[in-house]
Amino acid sequence: MAKERRSAIEPTRAQDYPEWYQQVIKAADLAENSPVRGCMVIKPWGYSLWENMQKSLDKMFKDTGHTNAYFPLFIPVSYLEKEAEHVEGFAKECAVVTHSKLELGEGGKLVPAAPLEEPLIVRPTSETIIGEMYSRWVQSYRDLPLLINQWANVVRWEMRTRLFLRTAEFLWQEGHTAHATRGEAEIETLKMLSVYEDFAQNWMAMPVICGKKTEGEKFPGAVDTYCIEAMMQDRKALQAGTSHFLGQNFAKASNIRYLSEAGAQEYAWTTSWGVSTRLIGGMVMTHSDDDGLVLPPKLAPLHVVILPVLHSEAEKENVLKYCETLKRDISQKKYCGSEIKVDVDSRDLRGGEKMWSWVKKGVPIRIEVGPRDIAADSLFVARRDTGEKLAYPRTKFLEDVPDILQSIQDGLFNRAKAYRDANTVEISSKEDFYAYFTPKNEKKPEIHGGFAIADYNGSAEIEDMLRRDLKVTVRCIPLSGAVPKGKCIFTGENAKYRAVFAKSY
Amino acid sequence: MAKERRSAIEPTRAQDYPEWYQQVIKAADLAENSPVRGCMVIKPWGYSLWENMQKSLDKMFKDTGHTNAYFPLFIPVSYLEKEAEHVEGFAKECAVVTHSKLELGEGGKLVPAAPLEEPLIVRPTSETIIGEMYSRWVQSYRDLPLLINQWANVVRWEMRTRLFLRTAEFLWQEGHTAHATRGEAEIETLKMLSVYEDFAQNWMAMPVICGKKTEGEKFPGAVDTYCIEAMMQDRKALQAGTSHFLGQNFAKASNIRYLSEAGAQEYAWTTSWGVSTRLIGGMVMTHSDDDGLVLPPKLAPLHVVILPVLHSEAEKENVLKYCETLKRDISQKKYCGSEIKVDVDSRDLRGGEKMWSWVKKGVPIRIEVGPRDIAADSLFVARRDTGEKLAYPRTKFLEDVPDILQSIQDGLFNRAKAYRDANTVEISSKEDFYAYFTPKNEKKPEIHGGFAIADYNGSAEIEDMLRRDLKVTVRCIPLSGAVPKGKCIFTGENAKYRAVFAKSY
């Protein structure tokens, strides 16, 4: 029912999607670039999203038997070298610590001094250092499984960065487990993938496809990499989480061996799995609109904001008192087992400015309260997801508020899923595939297809060709529906996989 | 009522206190040294202590109006240089990042490549990078106060490290606030000091003295540093937390200016305050005994452990079932507003080994349940703090368990306070002071005095003399009871302060 009007975010998604994304983040005050190359500052509103994600994920990890621990930030270069593919994958972009002090040099400038015997890198991921510790902790089959998670910062010296999606430093969790058997480790890998799927869909309201990466896209050193892939509103894919079955590769590199029940020395089987602050970027891009951020209630720092509408000083006391009582009443309601988070914004700002500030921050429900509403004991309630505005009798609203929040949560998921489904096509010829991924308008290269599902021969050559010609990659071989229906659409050979193809972040 | 016996930890505190500390940590499986110089690995039991500390502190910070955010790990060297005392304090021991990749060098070894234009240091503390961001965020008095906290890892290249107490990398929180007036910033500094005092005393059960540091001991760049100081069981002091009034020093260095209500450009007044994983070391050393770790219930990862006593396979099912029911009943009780954390240890271990493992881990209450106890519906309950063992009727225990936990919490605080008070003396002559701090036995240099309270002239010369002669420092000028009673005991001059002196960590 919104009137035709200018959007709060400029440019709009249709006008310039990448810039729209930056502006949504700015308008919601989530994060900004720091003067340190590639490193972002996560501001309070953005960080509270991460805190809420951490809280839910942490409970899921603990409910599946994991405990948290903390391992060193620094990794000796010699550790990285132990696994050949791993070092290949990470040596190219890493922060290298070479000195342990600064001294005054020529011209009074501080220069590095006290060189280290062996350079250290700032962890880009912790398989090697954790593997070293596990090799000390694991002696017998009784010490297995080891089920440990770490919340930490990691650094990958990315050349082209983008807030949340790709930054030199980011925050994440990395689970690292060691098992006595291959089967157990494989089950763990898939179990954590399904934890990520559950979190993405039921907390972030972000539909995802669970699948397996091809050889060319997997984690350096992994036997198998599984992932969850989501579609953003520019129809590009975002890899939102990965779970790796590492086989015995890292166990051999780090010498994680155990004495089996039968008395033999065996290498352990390990896994690792992680999600990062990238999820915030995914959440922003999945739900936000041309008026700014839209938050799923389950992760919103604030569920309801009450905006007193004051036309004169005389009304002020009465209206504010009513608002405070309303706040108290709402906060006694529960949503998903916790108190509903509600606040009164009594800042001395113009009504429009104040209202828009909360629209742009994505708060699910806004309530405007003025003297007339008080007289009628009625609330003027606006939903952030649909823009719908309704007058509610006060008691009715108090009864319904948990349901309204759940309806917003469900509505966001359904809307995102419908969008993804509408932009996913099955393709059965190379010509259609190339046409689908070729921008129709040179000025808007972001307008192209979405997800394509197609059969192919599974070869690296085809993947290279698509990457080169179209910047398209195999996002994953889905865990369900992956049986090829026909021949490879690119070569006419027998198809090995039915895969999801897309451009991606 | 404990019988004369060997202690579970060797050596005992009296035999070798520093080694006892290492062995308590090892026996409780809290942490260990990593192969990365100076960096520790915090193991699950140790990390859960940090998680509990974080949870309580974080709530206290939020209740006092602070929000969390996240700032970059790296600090450009030029930022560090902005505040003269600050750079002096931190340049000597820091990790310097100089390159952004590794390449194969001679002999096939990886060597640093792609040198950075400007070296970065890994944050030893974040005043300078946060100051830079604040200078961008603060424009007008309306933007103040800024009340932000960060949970993060920091690195100081310490030469002599010790688990938790002094490590190259450690975890901490650092609060950074900016205010419009000096008075407001001073109030903030003292408010956060009292949050730390509250946390130390009421959560960690660790009595502390609140006071101010002397010029020589304050934070590099601060106007005033306040601290909480605790006494360990070797009668040394541990600085457990600090809160700094930074005046306008960092505001000037980072150009944090605001337009005042009166329309003038003014520098803001800033504060910073922090506690770290060092607190875990303090907690270990305050309460533990010759049998290992002793945990205050408010921070224990587990309050009650139930140990089934099985003499035959036939009893097993019945005993385990009783234990599980007991666990459920206990977990429905509340302590300090939360569920009591209880577990059954049904591992296949010898009874003695199993029992001692929980003694060494510091769990406040152990319950042994065997067939005879079940027949009598009675529980054999052991308190970790006093060693006391009592048979409790089951229903009586269920009623009393929150009170028992609180009595352990209070008992630990009172015991630690009595120990500190018994080892604190007022000293009124230099001779007595030197005698107090001179070890009586050359072989046991750790046996010396404890805290000395004495009047002195407040000069750096006296402080240098004491540091050189006795390794004693002014721990703080207490916020209460700091009025000198007489002349400076070292010079006979007028006394400026009545201070607390001690050896320290």
Annotation keywords:
11-stranded mixed beta sheet, 3 domains, homodimer, 27% strand, BirA Bifunctional Protein, domain 2, 505 residues, alpha+beta
What would you note in describing this structure?
- Two copies of one chain form a homodimer.
- The first copy, chain A, has 505 residues and is α+β, with helices and mostly antiparallel strands.
- Chain A folds into three domains: 17-287, 2-Layer Sandwich (BirA Bifunctional Protein, domain 2); 302-404, Rossmann fold; 424-502, C-terminal domain of ProRS (Translation Initiation Factor IF3, 2-Layer Sandwich), CATH 3.30.110.
- In chain A, 35% of the residues lie in helices and 27% in strands.
- The first copy, chain A, is built from 14 helices and 25 strands.
- The longest helix of chain A has 29 residues, at 394-422.
- The model of chain A has no long low-confidence stretch (mean pLDDT 95).
- Chains A and B meet through strand 2, helix 2, strand 3, strand 4 and strand 5 of A and strand 2, helix 2, strand 3, strand 4 and strand 5 of B.
- Strand 5 (96-104) of chain A pairs antiparallel with strand 5 (96-104) of chain B.
